[in-house]
Amino acid sequence: MDISKVRSSTKEHVFFFSVYQKLMHHKSYNVLLFLLSILVHPFTYLSYRKRKHLLQYRQAFEQRSQYYKEKGLLTKWQVEFAEQELAKAKFFHESVSEKQLQETALKLAETKIQQLVEQDLSKDGLEDPSYLQYFNQQLKNKSFVVLTFLPAFLFYVALILFANPFLQYVIERILQSFIVIVGVATLVFTILYLSPFDPARNLLGVTATPEQITNFNHIHGLDQPYLSQLWNALSGLFTFDLGTSFAGKENITHSIVNKFPVTLEIAILSLLMAIAIAIPVGIISAVRPNSYLDYTFMFIALIGLSIPSFWQGLIFILTFALKLQWFPATYNPQNWLSLIMPVIVLGTSITASIARMTRSSMLEVIHEDYIITAKAKGLNEFKVISKHAIRNAMIPIITVIGLLFGGMLGGASVTEKVFNISGIGSYIVDKQFIPDIPAILGGVVYIAITISIVNLFIDILYAFFDPRIRSKMKKS
Questions:
Q1: What is the mean pLDDT of residues 173-185?
Q2: What is the C-alpha to C-alpha distance for residues 120 and 28, in angstroms, rounded to an integer?
Q3: Is the pLDDT of residue 220 over 50?
Q4: pLDDT in tens, 29-49
Q5: Please, which residues have CB within 8 angstroms of residue 162's CB and are 6 or more apart in sequence?
Q6: DSSP 121-174
Q7: Could you report the per-residue pLDDT of 257-286, keeping only the tens digit for each?
């Protein structure tokens, strides 16, 4: 009972120390953790500067350096380095003055003395740790942890999260997604800012007076410097306060909240349809290569990739809506049948892409040695494909699915226009010719946020499907 208590207290004693020591090797983590514990560092640094053993180390260092200099090692090494530098200068046909030669030789000799002294003191148990090493050592002290827990609360929370390899993996992806979103917002805003289109002139018309244009620009902040406008745009995005659009004075956040779910619903249904059709088709084509089924499926997939979505949508409307009257020609939120044609049109090309990628990935996997070994051991083909081949072939397929889903969200505007869907894609297209900067920026960035969330989910699926990724996370 007592032994277990001692062991548990020891683990708690070095927990923060060990996690921080592991993260110290990464510069990005060093900066992040330093900022999270910024309130503690002034006091810790004062303690570091007042250490008694720092003075002891410096005294020992000076004494040992003086000892080697009195033995003549400094003079001896200075002569040797001078000869080496002179030989080097002659080899490269360079001219060097005697003064410069002696200064270089003295500097090299003093460096060698310093390295020798540091080695001696290290053997004697005397070290001169850096401030970060000193701070890391303080994390072993329970009193230090207790006293600094509140001012460095986020710092300790980060250490607790980073102690778990899987949570660290997820947090890294979230931080990367945040950087991507900020980068996308900055890029889109900069392009719109440099656009030759004049929102005031486009909205007020050619008959607008200079005073009206000036007043419009002042109301919407378009007369402010670039950095001020960029900061206002970014702060509005992350506080969900996008303001009002240039045209119509509509609340942008409210418009996006109303329009984005429609696009997301169609994209998700299209993706589910594509996965349900494409993966079985790709597996069948890979298991029976160069067969009638393989040629048929891949030919259909090639046609699916080649058909323009707007043309396919118009053909569907003419055939299934106007002629056969199976489905409504335009989207109606109250009628679920009106979703079928947009979902099929949007999902056709991605179905073809996923099917071809599945076939390619499966063909690569089923010729691996471990698949041949499994067949040689007597496993039937269904078990080999379902338990071994599919799982290992899923990584590139998942990657393609994530990329295609992002493309669907960004490219849904054509399908939305054809079927008269009031979604985020058509909303951005309508606003871009003004250009209505807050509306476009809001729509694009929230699409980017959705894509980042999907990519985060895909990265987590990587770890689920590939044990090598889980192994690397634990080793890192």
A1: 82
A2: 33
A3: yes
A4: 778 888 888 888 888 888 877
A5: 19, 23, 29, 168, 171
A6: HHHTT-----HHHHHHHHTT-HHHHHHHTTTTHHHHHHHHHHTSHHHHHHHHHH
A7: 787 788 888 888 888 888 888 888 888 888
CA distance 231 to 121: 53
Nearest to 473 by CA among 175, 172, 233, 219: 172
Backbone angles phi, psi at 126, to 5 degrees: -105, 125
Going from the C-alpha of 119 to that of each of 113, 116, 130, the distances in angstroms are: 10, 5, 16
Q: What is the pLDDT of residues 364-378, one digit of tens each?
A: 877 777 777 777 777
- The helix/strand/coil state of 251 is strand
3-state DSSP assignment of residue 244: strand
- Tokens 């509005």 identify what position? 236
Instruction: Please give the Cα distance from 198 to 206 (Å, whole number).
Output: 11
pLDDT at 298: 81
Given a contact cutoff of 8 angstroms between Cβ atoms, the answer to whether 351 and 382 are in contact is no
Number of alpha carbons in the 13 Å side-chain half-sphere of residue 445: 28
